[in-house]
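Notes, Module 5: Reading structure tokens.

Key idea: the token line is not a picture. It is a compressed description, and you learn to read it the same way you learned to read a sequence, by spotting repeated patterns. We will look at two proteins. The first is printed below with its tokens.
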Amino acid sequence: MSFGSSKRPAFKPTPYGHTRQRRGIPRWLVLLISGIVLGAGGVVFLQRSYGPPRLTAEQSEQLRMDLNSANIEKQQLQTQAKQLRTEVEQARQALAEQTRTLDQLREDHTAMQSGVAELIAAIPPDPRGTSPGIRAADMIVRDNLLAYSALLIQDLPEGATEVPAFDGEVKLVAAGQYRSGQTVYVDIATLPLHMMRYTQVKGETELPKGFRARQVTIQITAAGADKIVSTRTIRVVAGK
């Protein structure tokens, strides 16, 4: 009796079966990790090679202190700037006030000049008709001192509003007597003169001891000339 073959049929998986196989790390994960590692290494390399050096603890502390000092200095500068702005504003206000005052003074000066012009026009002219003219004068003796005062005015040229400056000198010559009764003339004062439209010459001078002045002659001469330009004789009065 013969039996069939003793070989077992080979096993073939069916579509419904499965087998277990060991799987490796996916390629894409390997590439991702490699890229991360290379990128981090590149960053470290660039920082060490080309980036700014890292500060030590002491350097960091010094930097912090410098920053605090800079902040304090900035605050001080801001305070100073605010103070300067305040001072500038105060100066601007003061300047504006001074400008207003100056404008008022100019207006007052113009009004005063107008009033002076009217007053000059009302003063009687020098009897001799000279210019500068000696329009008015007083000679007063008190305790052997002669107090003198004279108003000198230049005439305006026809059609003019101003006169040229006049330079020269004023000389006072007193006529009187000593106790002996002799009449003499005594030069008692010589004064420099610089005037425009008008000026007042005034002061005091001591008379010679024992001399009694009766009258004083005012003489005006121009600078560099000996010729008398104007003269007028005023009687001396005794003061109280």
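Here is the second protein, with the sequence above and the tokens below, as before.
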Amino acid sequence: MNKTFFSPLTALLALPAYSQHAVKPNVVIILADDLGYGDVSAYGQTSIHTPNIDRLARSGVCFTDGHATSATSTPSRYGLFTGMYPWKNKDAKILPGDAPLLISPSQFTLPKMFQQAGYTTAAIGKWHLGMGYGKIDWNKPIIPAGNAIGFDYTNLIAATVDRVPTVYVENGKVVGLDPEDPIYVDYEHNFPGEPTALTNPEMMKMQWCHGHQNTIVNGIPRIGYMKGGQKARWKDDEMAQYLLDRVCGFIDTTANKPFFLYYGLHEPHVPRTPDTRFAGKTKLGARGDVIVEADWCVGQLMKKLEEKNLLDNTLIIFSSDNGPVLDDGYKDGARESKPLHDPNGGLRGGKYSLFDSGTRVPLFFYWKNHIRPVVNHNLVSQQDIVASLAKLIGEKIPQGLDSEEMLDVFLGKKLKGRHDMVVEASGRLAYRSGHYALIPPYKGPRTNETDNELGVVDDFALYDLSADPSQMVEISTQHPRLLKKLKREFLQQTKGYYSPDTKQETLK
């Protein structure tokens, strides 16, 4: 795996000093869903080509040790939007599609900060942070919707593409809903007469292998039960274009005002259903094809910004919500592609795991004419985006956040990183201190249905990632003083939260 494309020190010496513009820069956060460190060709893999994402990496700040706060979707997004460790909120875990809004409308958030600074804000795409107060009536305006935490405009996938309801929710209302065909959703019981993967397997176009045997929509079995809303149901293979159109439309309507845009790509999360333009574009099946599709979406966004003459005044942040997974519930050929492509990029673990690939993700900062190419190998975290962007736009954040201000690092002016951080995976915690990784003991299975190692160990395990990025050599016995020091730091930071008896969260 190639980690360097140029000399970062040379690039740093050539950087111009950053100065605050009279017109504040636009900010776009693009967050892929389950995209692995090894899925982006900028990091050196050759089995999938991602030229548009690579452009952000090669012409901006490319972090090789950038992390999400969690190895799963909901808590990861919670950390990104709030600047808080998600494991401090007991409800920040994988949510069903009908869960209440996880972030309180009274809570400080990243989009609220941008609103306070005079920005127009939007969230488009993958959400998975809940809506309403629970037991949602999808046939009425949903209050509170995603708009309640600081977004002027929202057009969202309520949870994940494999969960019901399979509809878009725009500003709290289901798009295209026919009042004569109301929507009903239940995560415990099916509705009488509604087909499922178990009762009507002949209706399936995609086969499930674990956890996805409920309501069938577009020939794809989902998690949860749904009735009605036929005209409002999305077409899976049209989703990328639908969301991209809303992104471009938002930019068209806000081109004369500063804006903050969260663009939640749904790729390469299951079910993987590429548009016909991308089907078969790789040798890796549907998972490879939807990654190419996601890369195209990034390119189209860049093209729109260029058309509007906005690219040199727009900071673009690209990342993923957590590490990769091949087989996450459907038989789509992803497991069979493993000999041809390593989505972990040589790292250990993946989605749901405390090993490094659970949270180490692609992370790039691009700002034309303001950031020159830099590769940074130091530890950084998505949760520091809140405090760093606050400095960028001249706003203050409340005391007590876990977000650290690292604007100069994110803009490529400095190469330092975080001293340490706590990461989370399905309710379990681990610790990073510099290039060392500490995994505490937990009880439970070592792997789950995804075949990803969960990072479950019998006693505190210590790894030196600078010498052993694949975490194959456990070094606690060779470094007892270091182990004692890191254990003390970890237990101090997680007092009241860490327990070796913590159980793996279910995927429901």
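Summary for the second protein:
- Residues 190 and 296 are 38 Å apart (CA to CA).
- Residues 420-493 form a domain with the Arylsulfatase, C-terminal domain fold (CATH 3.30.1120.10).
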